[in-house]
Amino acid sequence: MGAGVIAMEQSTEKPKHLLDFQGWSRAQVESLFETARMMQEVLERPVKKVPALTGFTVATVFFENSTRTRLSFELAARRMSADVLSFSGATSSMAKGESYKDTLLTLDAMGIDAYVIRVDAAGVPHQAVRWLGKPVINAGDGWRAHPTQALLDAFSLLERLGTLEGKKIAVVGDILHSRVARSNAELLPMLGAEVWLCGPATLLPGELPKARLTTDLREALQDADAVMALRLQKERMDKGLLPSEPEYIAGYQITRERLGWAKPTAPLLHPGPMNRDLELEGTLAESERSLVERQVANGQAVRMAVLYHLLVGRR
Amino acid sequence: MGAGVIAMEQSTEKPKHLLDFQGWSRAQVESLFETARMMQEVLERPVKKVPALTGFTVATVFFENSTRTRLSFELAARRMSADVLSFSGATSSMAKGESYKDTLLTLDAMGIDAYVIRVDAAGVPHQAVRWLGKPVINAGDGWRAHPTQALLDAFSLLERLGTLEGKKIAVVGDILHSRVARSNAELLPMLGAEVWLCGPATLLPGELPKARLTTDLREALQDADAVMALRLQKERMDKGLLPSEPEYIAGYQITRERLGWAKPTAPLLHPGPMNRDLELEGTLAESERSLVERQVANGQAVRMAVLYHLLVGRR
Amino acid sequence: MGAGVIAMEQSTEKPKHLLDFQGWSRAQVESLFETARMMQEVLERPVKKVPALTGFTVATVFFENSTRTRLSFELAARRMSADVLSFSGATSSMAKGESYKDTLLTLDAMGIDAYVIRVDAAGVPHQAVRWLGKPVINAGDGWRAHPTQALLDAFSLLERLGTLEGKKIAVVGDILHSRVARSNAELLPMLGAEVWLCGPATLLPGELPKARLTTDLREALQDADAVMALRLQKERMDKGLLPSEPEYIAGYQITRERLGWAKPTAPLLHPGPMNRDLELEGTLAESERSLVERQVANGQAVRMAVLYHLLVGRR
């Protein structure tokens, strides 16, 4: 009996971190989404602020720059009345060779209650858990994971589609280098969806568990319930590491015509910032099919919910 | 009757934005100044804070850098208990070619209540009004307008002179490239003043409605009730786009002697930051004629009043 | 009698600034540490926040970059409910030649209650006192002083050793260019300690009052009650302005073996950020001898106490 009880307890125990979806159950994700729906109501009020995290200090530690993601987390934290310590690797002694560990331990000594970490080296947030003993939220580590992006994507899809059970979700672009694709390929199947990852052969990984890979855009989009275009890194393109713009557009740009292969009301997602007229036909982003702004708005609600679950659950 | 009523309603309707002074009446500016005088009282208390904007989020979006103006707005917003989202173009995905519109729509999706926008391209704040549907405050767009600077100038002048009715205000320097000059030339005549704009011929625009232009410093300063020196951009000077320092000083520096042409108690203004011993004789900035620090202090009161009028009036 | 009374009154009067320890008595430092111990208790609560400085505005003015010190002060201020205005010289009109004085007077006009100033030019915080008439905290000026670092060092030493009376404290490294060494050599003797400053001959100043200077590491460490390693500036090393890494390590690195010359439980301090395996054997920083993280934690309590003493005592 012992082992069974322990297993059951583990499965109902609240996760202490959000590194990826290892250790998260479908029920836990759904519970998080319930909280996020309450946060959406807060965000529709004139006074978009709750006292839930008064006196808590949330550190955003961005070893890799990302203004949008950092602002989204910081605003979410402040709307819950937390204090925010904002650390950016680029302007700090990191430039002088201080290690990730020393930096995090120094911040920790100032009395931090939760960490939001963005870093170009995969696995650093996992190490941070061992170093810090505080809730850690992965805001993107290398190509590995970007779980709050996947959560806000799933939340936005659920809002539009009602359920993800049996739905076909096509993700298109540079899959190989995309933490967004990897996190979605982990989370969406957990919620019942079938995930298709599509891009040029040079931009597909060998395999990903639970996801289907294809170079054929038509196959990916055919009867899809939703389509997600990923951001291409033009810097990589300019270095010849990606197909050229004309090649990519010819084969993989999401156009109105190609979107017609998907179900008639299939929504279109993009994690932003967009390269207009590259990943997708420019005007599609403003069409009623687009969830692009809704994704950003839901990012607030989802990130508030994540902070709430990880911090208040531990008091 | 209908049209007349509508016109009257429009003229008493509170402005929704502060882009320039189009759509602002003298009565509306005076009402704003009444609020600013209340804010001055708040700023003289030990606890310089009011709860008026609790739960509101004000975004400062500076596509062009300006630390002083940004800090002034952010402190004004926080002293009214608003949350502040601080976006700086230089450190963001703007560098990767994201458009003004995409950036603003992304921030807007996070739930922003008002925007403070500084940008080197004239007209972007006007476009932002169409994109966002939220109050927009222009914190400087190209050479076009910098209305809160003109408001704090006018407010400081009224404080010293009692009225602007029939007063002669001389503005001296690089008029052509100055949004400060343009906004003052719009606002001060609305409040009854006569504005003289003075500088070398190469730095004067063809014409400006409601203002008088002259290259003759003596003509501009003669019997003036107040003198405003503008900031010269030394970078432009070094490139040969402006007169040389010695030439400028010889013709247009405000010295104690030249200030003697104006009325005996005429105050001296400068929007800052000053190039000492260039636009004006260094010690003049500390003389009792100088309003330079008073302008900065009034900037707090005026910006708090602007935020209050645009945000609380809309609830 | 008059002069005696005045002297007594002066000695019990609360200091208005923290520039260095001129004008601070031992009793005043001990009173500050009592407040810091109360702040430590606040920092151990789930709600690490007190309303003591509500409505006050603290400006952190960093003409020289230092992310860690700036964050420590800003978090301390916000945990006392102050508003923080964060000014960094690098991103401002300072780059355009604005003087320290003009910058500070401009910020002051916005209504600042206390200043935290970091600057590479010694003496600027002293000048700021004359310009501003508000409490000024020196967060490091050139090689001259860094008093809050010395306070947190002394506070951490007292916590571990109980008293500093008659204790031998060895400070090792680039003494010549170290404001941390100078401030410790001023404060620790005031609290009864004997300070030894040790480094290569080229990195020792001619003399320092109240401290003993030696190039002999063994002499400095022998029976020491505590050992403090200073940060070396590798940039200076690379330019040939310091001994080479191998030379420094051979003569002055704090190793486990050399730490054995000190008393058996003598703690090891470092102001951070560390160059691991240069100033000290890497693993020593994590040993139970190390106070490195405790120093950072105490930095919060001490800086909260400094702000409290300088601001609330003046109301």
UniProtKB/TrEMBL annotation, chains A, B, C:
<dbReference type="GO" id="GO:0016597">
    <property type="term" value="F:amino acid binding"/>
</dbReference>
<protein>
    <recommendedName>
        <fullName>Aspartate carbamoyltransferase</fullName>
        <ecNumber>2.1.3.2</ecNumber>
    </recommendedName>
</protein>
<feature type="binding site">
    <location>
        <position position="69"/>
    </location>
    <ligand>
        <name>carbamoyl phosphate</name>
    </ligand>
</feature>
<dbReference type="InterPro" id="IPR002082">
    <property type="entry name" value="Asp_carbamoyltransf"/>
</dbReference>
<dbReference type="InterPro" id="IPR006130">
    <property type="entry name" value="Asp/Orn_carbamoylTrfase"/>
</dbReference>
<dbReference type="InterPro" id="IPR006132">
    <property type="entry name" value="Asp/Orn_carbamoyltranf_P-bd"/>
</dbReference>
<dbReference type="Pfam" id="PF02729">
    <property type="entry name" value="OTCace_N"/>
</dbReference>
<feature type="binding site">
    <location>
        <position position="96"/>
    </location>
    <ligand>
        <name>L-aspartate</name>
    </ligand>
</feature>
<keyword id="KW-0665">Pyrimidine biosynthesis</keyword>
<dbReference type="GO" id="GO:0044205">
    <property type="term" value="P:'de novo' UMP biosynthetic process"/>
</dbReference>
<dbReference type="InterPro" id="IPR036901">
    <property type="entry name" value="Asp/Orn_carbamoylTrfase_sf"/>
</dbReference>
<dbReference type="Pfam" id="PF00185">
    <property type="entry name" value="OTCace"/>
</dbReference>
<dbReference type="GO" id="GO:0005829">
    <property type="term" value="C:cytosol"/>
</dbReference>
<feature type="binding site">
    <location>
        <position position="149"/>
    </location>
    <ligand>
        <name>carbamoyl phosphate</name>
    </ligand>
</feature>
<feature type="binding site">
    <location>
        <position position="179"/>
    </location>
    <ligand>
        <name>L-aspartate</name>
    </ligand>
</feature>
<feature type="binding site">
    <location>
        <position position="231"/>
    </location>
    <ligand>
        <name>L-aspartate</name>
    </ligand>
</feature>
<feature type="binding site">
    <location>
        <position position="118"/>
    </location>
    <ligand>
        <name>carbamoyl phosphate</name>
    </ligand>
</feature>
<comment type="subunit">
    <text>Heterododecamer (2C3:3R2) of six catalytic PyrB chains organized as two trimers (C3), and six regulatory PyrI chains organized as three dimers (R2).</text>
</comment>
<feature type="binding site">
    <location>
        <position position="273"/>
    </location>
    <ligand>
        <name>carbamoyl phosphate</name>
    </ligand>
</feature>
<comment type="function">
    <text>Catalyzes the condensation of carbamoyl phosphate and aspartate to form carbamoyl aspartate and inorganic phosphate, the committed step in the de novo pyrimidine nucleotide biosynthesis pathway.</text>
</comment>
<keyword id="KW-0808">Transferase</keyword>
<comment type="pathway">
    <text>Pyrimidine metabolism; UMP biosynthesis via de novo pathway; (S)-dihydroorotate from bicarbonate: step 2/3.</text>
</comment>
<dbReference type="GO" id="GO:0004070">
    <property type="term" value="F:aspartate carbamoyltransferase activity"/>
</dbReference>
<feature type="domain" description="Aspartate/ornithine carbamoyltransferase Asp/Orn-binding">
    <location>
        <begin position="165"/>
        <end position="310"/>
    </location>
</feature>
<feature type="binding site">
    <location>
        <position position="68"/>
    </location>
    <ligand>
        <name>carbamoyl phosphate</name>
    </ligand>
</feature>
<feature type="binding site">
    <location>
        <position position="272"/>
    </location>
    <ligand>
        <name>carbamoyl phosphate</name>
    </ligand>
</feature>
<feature type="binding site">
    <location>
        <position position="146"/>
    </location>
    <ligand>
        <name>carbamoyl phosphate</name>
    </ligand>
</feature>
<comment type="similarity">
    <text>Belongs to the aspartate/ornithine carbamoyltransferase superfamily. ATCase family.</text>
</comment>
<dbReference type="GO" id="GO:0006207">
    <property type="term" value="P:'de novo' pyrimidine nucleobase biosynthetic process"/>
</dbReference>
<feature type="domain" description="Aspartate/ornithine carbamoyltransferase carbamoyl-P binding">
    <location>
        <begin position="16"/>
        <end position="158"/>
    </location>
</feature>
<dbReference type="InterPro" id="IPR006131">
    <property type="entry name" value="Asp_carbamoyltransf_Asp/Orn-bd"/>
</dbReference>
<dbReference type="GO" id="GO:0006520">
    <property type="term" value="P:amino acid metabolic process"/>
</dbReference>
